Amino acid sequence: MNLRYSIFIILVLVCFTSCKTANSGKYTKTSLYKNEVFACYYHNKFNGRKTANGDTFSNNKLTAAHKSLNFGTKVKVTNIKNNKSVIVTINDRGPFTKGLEIDLSKKAFDAISHDKKAGKLHVKLELMND
Question: In this structure, are strands 121-129 and 29-41 parallel, antiparallel, or unpaired?
Answer without folding.
Answer: antiparallel
